[in-house]
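Appendix C reproduces, verbatim, an entry submitted by the partner laboratory led by Prof. M.T., so that reviewers can inspect both the input and the predicted structure.
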Amino acid sequence: MAKFGAAYGVRTGVHVGVDVAINQLEPGSRRKVVLFGLACGRFSPSSSVRLDFGFVLHMYETGQSSNDLEAPMWIVYLAIPLGSYLMCFRFLQVALAFYRTGELPHTDESHVEGIEPIPGDVMAEAGLKPRSAPVAGGVR
């Protein structure tokens, strides 16, 4: 299930990304480095898909079944290559969208669903500074 979670993270922009050095680059160089990074991110899941499907085929041939789920083990282990494939697909999807628009998916970690932001005048009264808005493209 971790692979499915990682694929979701890639799609929504919450997957781990280190962008401190990348933000210092010129826009043209930054674009190339980001696309290279997305291609590298795609490499690991795509290479494991073949190995994982081989393992699932081996489990199919053994005929083992899960005592707890009462299902064939190959079905249980099928989640691994499917999650890898989905993660690979998401990296390609993000790379294509970035190539077309120059935007990476991002989330605003300061936003909590169902909670309204505090108005600026109330924050000023409390002596608090509002958070800065995210930089365009989702890269801070």
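Residues 27-62 form the longest helix (36 residues). Additional entries are available on request from the coordinating office.
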